[in-house]
Amino acid sequence: MDERAILRCVRRWVRARNGLRAGLVAVALVLGAALAGRLLGRSLPTVVWLAVPALAAVGWGWPLPWERLLLQVGRKLGVGERLAALDVVIERGSSPLAGPLCAEIVAAHPRGWRLLAGPVEYGASALVVALAVAMGFASPLSGAPPQAAAPAAEEVVGTVPPPDEAAGEAPPPVMESPAVYPAQAEIPAYSPYHDLLASILGLEDALTGGLSGDEVAARLAQEEGLLRQLAERIAAAAPGGLSPSERAELAPLARQVARPDLRERLSELLDQGGEVPAREAEEAVAAVLAAADRASEDGEHEPTGALSDAPVAGAGSGTTTGAEGKGTVAGPPAPRDAELDGSDPFAGGEEGADFPGTVGGGPVESGPTGDWAPTPGEEEPNVVVGGEGEMRAYIVPGIPGEPSPSAGNAPTALTPQDVEVTLRARGIPPELRSLVRRYFELIGGNP
Amino acid sequence: MITERDLIEAREAFRLLRERIAGVIVGQEEVVEIALWALLARGHVLLEGVPGLGKTLLVRSLARALGLSFSRIQFTPDLMPADIVGTNVFSGDGFRFLPGPVFAHVVLADEVNRATPKTQSALLEAMQEGQATIGTETHPLPNPFTVLATQNPIEMEGTYPLPEAQVDRFLFKAEVGFPDEGELVEIVRRNTEGVGIRLPEPILSADAVRRAQAVVAEYPVPRPLMEYAAALVLATHPKSPTAPEAVRRYVQYGASPRGGLALILGAKGRAFLAGRHHVGVEDIQAALRPSLVHRVIPNFRADADGVGAGQLVDEAARAVRVP
Question: Do A96 and B3 touch (CB under 8 A)?
Answer without folding.
Answer: yes
